[in-house]
Design brief:
heterodimer, A: 313 residues, mainly alpha, MetI-like fold, 16 helices, 78% helix, globular, B: 531 residues, alpha+beta, nine-stranded mixed β-sheet, four-stranded antiparallel β-sheet, 21% strand
Chain lengths: 313, 531
């Protein structure tokens, strides 16, 4: 196990290097110059050039790349070209909101999708199953921002139960923290609930047809136990896979939700940085996202061995 | 069974945890007595140097944190702000300024003449009006801690008009050590002498900027008027919250989560019109002019007849309907300095902007245009984006071959710096907009400069216009200034120096318990009270 983890971690190095090269090249090939944004409309070409020099953008691309990678290896993510703040500080200030939103969304998704998926499998072909399948199609089809605006209209504008927007850190109080995340998490989770519910249903249906399930029932094991201990546990590998994919999709896919609910997270930081061509911030974020994807996939692989003895052996 | 909760230590631990969480919550909240004004501004604040960039949100930040030596009141008169007053030498070539008492920096220490001199020296290199002024300045010198002088080669009050200019770039006064930052480097610290202190520890670029009342600020005795007069602050905190989604901002205002939206998206106005808790106010002075610009260095618009044909083909009403929609919030105007400005002459614009396609075809036939494609830059995420397709259609109808290229505003900002032929990445027409506060003066309006390589993008080279601008700088009185501005207007239309595309107003929405929001050229938060 330790050997496998070590091999996987070592394998991340070339992956991250390729990501770094690709993102650096793409950004330099993209039209747009952060110096023009900083200089404003009235700047002369000489002023823009002076700002480019001060930003280090006049250096050959290979020199800029080498400097960036060298600084990254020393743990220095550089300075935002637009705000002048350290990139690490910007990311740290945005990380909490995205992590909180991801965790609450994931918990809500699992709380809904696991029981609903199992029940849907249990009542396969019945009215409940058909309703769940129809609901999952709706979950897949309705864009996140439509769900978000509908929730805001009902729960914020009409009922005034929850805030329209904003984010409060945990230090502002647990309830204050959660009440700002409820609507965003529900909006964001609709597509994942639909996805995971379907996977759970399919996996459980597959396992319910296995011989050991028939044996358990013949031995008089209660149905709830057949479902939870025998069927769901043996269906866990594909479910864990889709949960892992969902987490990685969540990290990169919160841009719309963070914008609609005005949550100052990493998704908005990516969008702002792309629009303002803040190269140092975009580069660092993409590399960090890649690293997060790799680590999450590694954790999912490790979790397979915990739920399935065959993989462990 | 013993559980964690049944053990005394466990209960005590949970109680302590609850206390700690409550304490953190209290620490994170402003005290109950504090009055906080939460506003969504036209753009997020991302940088802190109001002299290096013409971005309006950074200018607005400048007015919160810094102060100016002079300011323009609601009637357009120049008034002292940080100054006790000024004297002019008998030959009119030396101005001596005296700072008023009680001016201090947020981080301590008195504002001195040396600070003012250093700030003017940095500003004069970057501001368009400052650059004109610098042609007449021989020295800017501190006399003592409270007074300084500016020596000129000619007798002119240009120095007063320049130091009082309200918008990009105002002459904000900074500590000398900060003002000595080279113009190629952005200032990243915030230490002013204005009515608000910047809460640097709460600043999250692109997300939130917080300003605290500067209790040490001594306002002038006169009532607030325009950007002049007493800057009396009635709230403890002002928070600028960035909201990328305009609908979210409107919903947050309806829900009472914010107090003010500086510029409401016009298509969302029906959501707030008629709401009893929301007050809408329309501002002309904070409105703007949409503008087009030819590339004078490349065919076909290096030919004045082709430029005139294009001006004749364009239809301001149709373009403004595309950009703004509701006719209550826009007006057509052929004045390059704006119809609400001090110089509203529209002379020379009579044949243009009415969509005269036949007239345009006739002019185009006389020009050197041979049907080569012209590149029209179309910023899809910018205010003028919706009017560009209308512009393209008018030009096509007049006989131009139009290649409308859609891109984001950042790409336009880079692309417009290209002087290459259109086939090699160049361009023919771009669009932008300016606040009315920035266009009303031939010296400060960047798009009126016609000094070739040094001019704004498009690089027009018309020595006659430049000569008039220099003459304007030395105008003896208001009548002479108006005559010269009218001459510039006529020449600008004749040469197609600028394409006025119409003027639009700004709608501000506030909760009804907010009062005192001034209708000045810049959105400011002194005089604002929250009941």
């Amino acid at each position: 196990m330790i050997g496998m983890i070590a091999r996987r971690l070592i394998a991340t190095i070339p992956v991250l290097l390729v990501v770094a090269i690709v993102i650096f090249a793409v950004l330099r090939l993209t039209p747009g110059d952060p110096a023009t944004l900083v200089a404003g409309d009235a700047a002369t070409p000489e002023q823009i050039e002076a700002i480019r020099r001060a930003m280090g953008l006049d250096q050959p691309v290979i020199v800029q790349f080498g400097r960036w990678v060298g600084d990254m290896l020393r743990g220095d993510f550089g300075i935002s070209l637009i705000s002048g703040k350290p990139v690490s500080e910007l990311i740290a200030s945005r990380m909490g909101a995205t992590v909180s939103l991801t965790i609450v969304t994931l918990l809500f998704t699992l709380l809904v999708s696991l029981p609903v998926g199992v029940l849907s499998a249990w009542y396969q072909g019945k009215a409940l199953d058909r309703a769940v399948m129809a609901g999952s199609v709706v979950g897949f089809s309705v864009p996140v921002f439509i769900v978000a605006y509908l929730l805001i209209l009902v729960f914020s504008i009409e009922l005034r139960w929850l805030p329209v927007q904003g984010y409060k850190p945990l230090s502002a109080g647990l309830w204050e923290h959660l009440r700002h995340l409820i609507l965003p998490a529900i909006s964001l989770s609709t597509v994942y609930i639909a996805l995971i519910t379907r996977i759970v249903r399919t996996s459980v249906i597959d396992t319910l047809g296995e011989d050991y399930i028939r044996t358990a029932r013949a031995k008089g094991v209660p149905e709830w136990s057949v479902l939870s201990r025998h069927a769901l546990q043996n269906a866990a590998v594909p479910i864990l896979t889709i949960i892992g994919i969902s987490i990685t999709m969540l990290i990169g896919g919160v841009v719309v939700t963070e914008s609609v609910f005005n949550i100052p997270g990493l998704g908005r930081l990516v969008l702002d940085s792309v629009l303002s061509r803040d190269f140092t911030v975009i580069q660092t974020l993409i590399v960090l996202f890649s690293l997060a994807y790799i680590l999450i996939n590694l954790l999912i692989d490790i979790s397979y061995t915990l739920v399935d003895p065959r993989i462990r052996s | 069974m013993t559980t964690l909760l049944s053990r005394p230590t466990g209960r005590a631990g949970l109680s302590l945890l609850a206390l700690a969480v409550s304490g953190l919550a209290l620490m994170a909240q402003p005290s109950l007595a504090e009055t906080t004004m939460t506003a969504v501004m036209e753009a997020p604040l991302r940088s802190l140097d109001p002299v290096i960039t013409t971005s309006y949100i950074v200018r607005n930040y400048g007015y919160m944190v810094y102060d100016t030596l002079l300011a323009v009141d609601a009637e357009g008169n120049v008034r002292p702000q940080m100054l006790e007053g000024w004297e002019t030498s008998t030959d009119g070539k030396t101005y001596t300024f005296t700072l008023r008492d009680g001016l201090t920096w947020h981080e301590g220490g008195a504002v001195t003449a040396a600070d003012a001199v250093a700030s003017i020296k940095r500003w004069i290199q970057l501001d368009k009006m400052g650059q004109v002024l610098s042609q007449f300045v021989t020295d800017i010198r501190a006399i003592d801690d409270a007074s300084f002088a500016i020596d000129l080669t000619v007798a002119s009050d240009l120095v007063l008009r320049a130091l009082a200019k309200p918008s990009s770039l105002p002459a904000f006064i900074m500590p000398a050590a900060v003002a000595e930052t080279p113009i190629s480097e952005a200032i990243t610290v915030s230490n002013g002498s204005g009515p608000f202190r910047f809460a640097a520890d709460e600043y999250n670029p692109g997300v939130r900027a917080v300003f605290l009342r500067n209790d040490a600020y001594v306002p002038r005795d006169e009532p607030a008027s325009g950007l002049a007069g007493g800057k009396v602050v009635h709230v403890d905190r002002v928070e600028w919250v960035a909201m990328p989604d305009a609908m979210t901002a409107v919903n947050a205002l309806r829900n009472g989560e914010i107090d003010l939206i500086e510029q409401v998206a016009l298509d969302l106005l029906p959501l707030v019109e008629g709401e009893p808790d929301i007050t809408l106010s329309t501002s002309v002075i904070r409105g703007g002019q949409s503008e087009g610009r030819f590339n004078f260095t490349q065919p076909p618009f290096n030919d004045p007849l082709a430029r005139q044909a294009a001006l004749m083909a364009l239809d301001q009403t149709a373009m403004m309907q595309a950009q703004v929609g509701n006719p209550d919030y826009f007006q057509t105007c052929g004045a390059v300095f704006g119809c609400a400005s001090q110089f509203p002459s529209t002379e020379g614009s009579e044949p243009y902007f009415k969509g005269d396609i036949e007239g345009a075809k006739a002019l185009l036939a006389q020009s050197s245009y041979k049907g080569e494609p012209l590149v029209l830059l179309h910023p899809t995420d910018f205010l003028t984006g919706p009017l560009v397709p209308v512009m393209a259609q008018s030009l096509r109808q007049a006989g131009f071959t139009v290649d409308m290229q859609s891109m984001d505003w950042q790409t336009v900002q880079t692309r417009r710096t290209s002087k290459a032929p259109v086939a090699e990445g160049g361009w023919s027409i771009l669009t932008t907009y300016s606040g009315l506060a920035d266009i009303g003066n031939p010296l400060s309006f960047m798009a009126i400069a016609a000094n070739g390589e040094k001019a704004w993008f498009g690089w027009p080279d018309f020595p006659a216009i430049e000569a008039l601008r220099l003459e304007f700088a030395q105008a003896a009185n208001a009548e002479e200034a108006e005559r010269i501005a009218t001459e510039i207007q006529k020449l600008a239309m004749q040469e197609g120096l600028l394409i006025p595309l119409g003027e639009f107003k700004v709608i501000t929405a506030t909760r009804s318990n907010v009062t005192g929001f001034l209708d000045s050229a810049v959105p400011v938060f002194w005089n604002v009270a929250k009941q």
